[in-house]
Design a protein that fits this description.
With 1144 residues, the chain is of the alpha/beta class. Helix content is 71%, strand content 8%. The protein has 19 helices and 19 strands.
Length: 1144
């Protein structure tokens, strides 16, 4: 495949259609930063199927569409077309055109030669040509730094891309996911099998419980019929008895009604007499109550009059006390007002004196302030002049010290250099060290070759042992899986058998089914013949026990094809039954003698008397099949355990051999590492000896040159020292200036002290004036307060005189009231005595009438109670008669619903004598006992037999599925092992190829030196890391991280091109790869590009800012941005330009 053209429309900054021709050789792409050069590389990756918006430097894939500028609107779509030439016989007929178009809100669409395809199809097209959106040949900005900073494991991923095993990794991950899913399904299936086994055991128990349930239910139906008949009969007899009792109760009701009417008349007469007595007593009580209220009113009035007199006396006394207090207040106010007026006059005189002193003190403060400012200005001038002098002296002193220090330093440096010259002269020639280092390097190289040969042999042996270990592991896993399945099934069947034996232990002997051993394939036939009697015990029947028993019988001779021949272990009691049963594959209507049976292996049964049964004994057949399966599994277990032990021994032996080989390989690796270290140490010693010789010669010349230069600098330093000392001597003496500064400072301090004194005096005067004003205001406020108090006291005296006159008049009136009230109270006492006597007579009359009324009420109550009891007995008898009739009708309806016949016909319907029926309670108790017996059976699944057959079918299918899943697990593990082996082989081959290319390219880029790649951190290539060891010319061997920045960049370029040469792509894009290189290394880089053009058919696109790289290109494309935000593409063919210049 040869790439020809790249067309862009609306892609990022290329809003206008642009075409980039991709021609053979080196094509350079140049332009200023930010003009859109990298967009061309991203367009190539995008059209190849890049799906990561982040890789496109965007937040979403629609960000590749031109977003618009201030001059242009945004585009609605972006389209990139890549044209390439292919083989004429290929699927594309000689030319391939891939178009990717994206529209806002609609996503991307791909077309190959005009046909719509998927993104996966486009990726496969380029993958077949060893390129693609993530090809290592598309080197973007920062890729060199990423290679340098990458961890060894990340570099191994680059090697995997060159080896082309990324697909193997994908297939291995898919296989591992399938393996995990299959193992999960296998675990679920094992759990399902365990559940099914438990379900089968449960269904077998449920089938037996269902049969017992049906038998008890039939007995319950008969008991229910007897109970209904007894209840119907008892209800009819009870209804007749109740009607007779109701007739007798009717006569008692008539007699009780007559007695109640007589008692009611007597009660009415007594009630009238009682009402009259109550009215008379009420009148007497009303008169007594009214007189009592009048007496209480008179007493209250007397107490109020006495209390009012006492209150008036207290008010008069209080008025006398208030008058005395008011007189005293008037006197105090007059005295205080005189004293306060004297204080006000004194305070006003003091304020006037202080105000007169204020102008004098203010003038003194102003004079002190002017003197202080003048002293301060003088001091500042003196300080400034002295600061200038001091600064000049410090500068001069610093210049002298610096000149003297420089001269001393040069002198010390000259002494040190002369000492180094003497030391260098005493050192010997390093030629002997060079010879010894060369000998050690040769010896270490031989040891390294021997260790590498041994390591190669051990690696081959380890691969073989690894394959054997994988095979042994698969065999062991298969054997363990088969053994585990058989053991689980054996344990489940054994638990089921133990459960059956525990259940049968409480019977009268061994059940027939448990005593049999049936040949495989005849289980259903035996179960059909035994039928419901399979659970009957074998042996003599107990005399005192009901039930079914196999006691045995004599038979003359068994039929030639009887079932007895297929029952290896048969109790004698069952021989008669099996001896007369003929076994056939299919019933074809064979004639049967009396007593003979015919059964097929599928469980179809026909007797000589015409009885036919199908599908009987499914649970029993399952039990017999489980017993045969248990015997078969027990026989298989020893062989399976032996197979597992043998597989474990084989796997252990293989692991031991592999561990031994691994240990030997580790020893060989350590030996090889030691030999390599020794070789590197010898090389380093050789380099160091050669470098020491060259360094000594260079050092000697350098010391001579340095001594000459130092002598000149020392002479200059002495001249500078003399000049600085002369300048310092010309400066004035600073001591005289310091004395003038001190005198000025003394005058300034005195002026400031005088200013502070004057300011304090005027401040004290202001404070005294404020205190005097405050004191004068206080005195005036006190005068106003005392004047108000005197006025209030005079007003209160006038009010008290008027109030005393009013109180004396009211007391004279109230003093005569108590005597009149006492006379009225004495008259009312005689009236109260007479009313009390009349009230006692009325109460005695009421007591007699009340006793007569209570006697009449008691007689009436007794008569009513007798009448109510008679009516209640009559109603109860009628209700019982109706209830018993309803119960009789209910039993008749229930009989019709349950048994479809009236109760009188139940004895005939269910074959029992009506005279044998007990009362309803007895029959109900018998019915409840049967119900309880059925309840003790517990929940019953009547479909257990059908569900048991379905569960057994599912169990068989699950066993088959388990075997298939186990086989699938083994296949997947084998596939994963094969993929790992193939990946290791291809990765090793790629490593050898990349290492060879890397060694060659490193030497070309560095003009010598050595370098190699190594797999580190693991013996497994698929888990190891890729480390780079480089030895630039004249330096020791070291890892990539210890090289300088430029050396790291060149080494990374060598690795990238080594990966590229291992699997060349049709196009290689290098985006500013030469940015970290200097001009010399850029020349080497360009030389390597020229060599690569000759070695491969790859076409190169190189984005660069370096002029040297531009000059080496065959053609240039310039990306410009004349209009902000819009990129344009222009081209120059340098080859054609050179030819044109040569012909000119």
């Amino acid at each position: 495949m040869e790439f020809r053209r790249l067309k862009l429309t609306g892609f990022k900054s290329f809003v206008e259609p642009a075409e980039l021709r991709i021609e053979p050789g080196l094509t350079g792409i140049v332009g200023p930063n930010g003009c859109g050069k990298s967009n061309l590389l991203e367009a190539i990756r995008w059209v190849m199927g890049e799906s990561s918006a982040r890789s496109m430097r965007g937040g979403g894939m629609e960000d590749v569409i031109f977003a618009g500028t201030t001059q242009r609107p945004a585009r609605a779509f972006a389209e990139v077309t890549l044209t390439a030439a292919t083989a004429p016989s290929g699927p594309f007929g000689g030319e391939l055109e891939v178009v990717r178009r994206i529209e806002r809100g609609a996503g991307s669409a791909y077309r190959v030669n005009g046909k719509d395809v998927r993104a996966k199809d486009v990726a496969l097209v380029f993958a077949d040509a060893a390129t693609g959106a993530h090809s290592p040949a598309l080197v973007s900005q920062g890729r060199i730094a990423a290679v340098i900073a990458a961890r060894p494991a990340e570099r191994r991923m680059m090697l995997e891309e060159a080896a082309g095993i990324a697909g193997l990794h994908v297939r291995r991950r898919d296989a591992e996911q399938k393996l995990r899913a299959t193992e999960t399904n296998l675990e679920r299936l094992v759990d399902l099998l365990a559940g099914l086994e438990g379900q089968i055991a449960t269904l077998r128990r449920q089938a037996r419980a269902a049969e017992r349930y049906k038998a008890v239910s039939e007995r319950i139906r008969v008991a229910e019929a007897r109970m209904v008949f007894a209840r119907w009969r008892d209800a009819a007899d009870a209804a007749d008895a109740a009607r007779r009792e109701a007739k007798a109760s009717e006569e008692a009701v008539v007699n009780a009604q007559a007695a109640a009417r007589a008692a009611q008349l007597a009660q009415h007469a007594a009630a009238a007499a009682l009402a009259e007595a109550r009215d008379d007593l009420f009148d007497r009580r009303q008169d007594a109550s009214a007189h009592g209220q009048r007496m209480a009113s008179l007493t209250t009035q007397l107490e109020a009059a006495e209390q009012r007199l006492a209150d008036l006396d207290r008010q008069l006394q209080r008025l006398d006390d208030d008058r005395t207090h008011a007189d005293r207040m008037t006197e105090d106010a007059a005295e205080a007002l005189g004293r306060l007026e004297d204080d006000v006059a004194a305070a006003e005189a003091t304020l006037a004196a202080d105000e007169a002193q204020r102008p004098r003190l203010a003038a003194a403060r102003d004079d002190a302030d002017r003197a202080a400012r003048s002293a301060e200005v003088t001091l500042a001038q003196r300080v400034a002049e002295q600061a200038g002098i001091d600064a000049d002296w410090r500068v001069a002193e610093a210049a002298v010290a610096a000149a003297r220090q420089l001269w001393e330093r040069h002198d010390a440096e000259a002494a040190r250099l002369r000492q180094q010259v003497d030391q260098l002269a005493r050192e010997g020639d390093p030629g002997a060290q060079i010879v010894a280092a060369e000998a050690r390097r040769a010896e270490a190289a031989a040891a390294l070759a021997a260790a590498q040969a041994e390591r190669a042999e051990l690696l081959a042996l380890r691969e073989n042992l690894t394959a054997e270990r994988d095979h042994a592991g698969s065999a062991l896993a298969a054997a363990r899986a088969e053994l585990a399945g058989v053991e689980r099934e054996h344990d489940a069947l054994a638990r089921d058998k133990a459960a059956r034996e525990r259940q049968a232990a409480g019977g009268h002997g061994i059940a027939a089914l448990a005593a049999l051993r049936v040949a495989p394939g005849f289980e259903r036939a035996v179960a059909a013949v035994l039928g419901r009697d399979a659970g009957a015990p074998v042996g003599p029947a107990p005399a005192d026990t009901d039930g079914r028993f196999w006691t045995g019988a004599q038979v003359d001779a068994a039929l030639p094809y009887s079932l007895l021949h297929h029952v290896p272990q048969c109790p004698p009691e069952l021989a008669a039954r099996f001896g007369l049963v003929r076994v056939v594959d299919r019933d074809e209507g064979q004639a049967l003698a009396p007593g003979e049976w015919l059964v097929t292996r599928t469980g179809y049964l026909r007797r000589w008397d015409g009885f036919v049964a199908r599908g009987e004994g499914a649970a029993e057949a399952a039990t017999l099949e489980a017993e045969n399966r248990l015997i078969d599994l027990a026989a298989r277990l020893p062989a399976l355990r032996d197979a597992v032990s043998e597989a474990e021994a084989t796997a252990e032996a293989t692991r031991a051999a592999l561990a031994d080989t691994q240990a030997r390989l580790g020893t060989a690796e350590r030996t090889m590492t030691s030999a390599a270290d020794a070789e590197r140490a010898a090389l380093r010693a050789l380099d160091q000896a050669e470098a020491a010789r060259a360094a000594a010669e260079a050092r000697r010349a350098e010391l001579d040159r340095a001594l000459a230069e130092l002598a000149e600098r020392q002479a200059d330093a002495a001249t500078e020292l003399a000049r600085a000392e002369a300048k310092r001597a010309a400066l004035p003496d600073p001591a005289a200036g310091r004395a003038a500064v001190e005198a000025a400072r003394t005058r300034n301090d005195a002026a400031r002290a005088a200013l502070q004194t004057a300011s304090a005096a005027i401040a004290a005067l202001e404070q005294g004036l404020a205190v005097g004003r405050e004191r004068l205001g206080t005195h005036r406020a006190d005068i106003r307060n005392w004047q108000a108090r005197a006025s209030d006291a005079a007003k209160r005296l006038a009010d008290m005189a008027g109030r005393r006159e009013e109180l004396e008049q009211e007391r004279a009136i109230s003093a005569a009231r108590p005597a009149a009230l006492l006379r009225e109270i004495e008259d009312a006492e005689s009236i109260r005595t007479r009313l009390g006597q009349e009230l006692a007579l009325a109460e005695a009359a009421l007591t007699g009438a009340d006793a007569a009324a209570k006697t009449a009420d008691a007689a009436l109550g007794a008569a009513n109670e007798t009448l109510a009891a008679a009516r209640e007995r009559r109603a109860g008898a009628v209700a019982r008669a109706e209830s018993d009739d309803a119960r009789r009708q209910e039993m008749a309806s229930l009989s019709g619903e349950r048994f479809q016949c009236p109760p009188p016909l139940l004895p005939e319907r269910f074959d029992f004598a009506s005279g044998d029926i007990g009362n309803a309670a007895e029959e109900t108790a018998r019915h409840d006992l049967l119900i309880a017996e059925r309840e003790r059976i517990g929940p019953v699944n009547l479909l257990a037999a059908d569900e048991l057959a379905e569960a057994e079918d599912r169990h068989g299918a699950s066993i088959t599925e388990q075997a298939e899943l186990t086989e699938a697990v083994h296949r997947l593990r084998g596939s994963i092992g094969n993929l790992n082996r193939e990946g290791r082989e291809r990765l090793r081959a790629a490593f050898e190829a990349v290492d060879g290319h890397f060694r060659r390219l490193f030497s070309r880029l560095f003009g010598g030196g050595e370098a190699h790649l190594a797999l580190v951190d693991s013996d497994d290539p698929l888990e190891a890391g890729l480390e780079i060891f480089a030895q630039p010319p004249g330096k020791r061997l070291q890892s990539l991280t210890l090289l300088s920045g430029g050396e790291q960049a060149l080494t990374a370029v060598a690795l990238i091109f080594a990966l590229f040469l291992t699997n060349p792509a049709p196009i290689c894009v290098l985006d500013e790869v030469d940015a970290p290189l200097d001009d010399a290394n850029v020349e080497r880089f360009c030389d390597m590009l020229d060599a690569m053009v000759g070695e491969t058919d790859t076409r190169y696109l190189i984005v660069t800012h370096n002029a040297v790289t531009m000059s080496r290109m065959h053609r240039l494309f310039g990306v410009t941005m004349v209009e902000k935000g819009v990129s344009r593409l222009v081209s120059v063919d340098l080859g054609a330009a050179e030819e044109l210049l040569a012909t000119a």
